[in-house]
Amino acid sequence: MTETDQQDGVDVIVQEWQAVRPDLDCSPMAVIGRLSRASRLLERALKDEFAEHGLESWEFDVLATLLRAGPPHVLTAGELSSAAMVSSAALTNRVDRLVKRGLVDREVDPAHRRRVLVSLSEEGLRLVNKVVEHHLANERRLLTGLPAAECDQLATLLRRLLISLGDGGRQGADV
Prior knowledge:
Blueprint: H1 9-20, H2 27-52, H3 57-68, E1 74-76, H4 77-84, H5 88-100, E2 104-108, E3 116-120, H6 122-142, H7 148-164
Antiparallel strand pairs: 1-3, 2-3
Helix pairs in contact: 2-6, 3-6, 4-5
């Protein structure tokens, strides 16, 4: 049996719809259903990898966002909230938890007393640098079913889809 002869769960669902509603074009279900299922499976695998390092996905997201900011790995709470696509209240809760774990530091910006600065602590910097290496290896492992050229093609197609859905630029969770 070749790869194109194999069926996934979405094939079964689309066939069931076509059987009961042959008048409908169910082709969008083939794309959206697969994106949704792939997202859930990938999120589970990423969550498991982060858990091996004692982190939740959102914790890695915050730490990685601060790391990507470059030295001295400091962002305002507003910048961090925007990058993580969470409300300021949710971010405050997350930062509180990371401060308690000693992974980030929080201080009032001396130049603008109404602004809060969040930075990686030494422990946070050490941890996120270690975890990001494992994270990338895990992502490579998760994509081994596709040759590199197909990964590039899929990335291009997904970029076009995201842009068409209004995702432009520096918004969204960490990858």
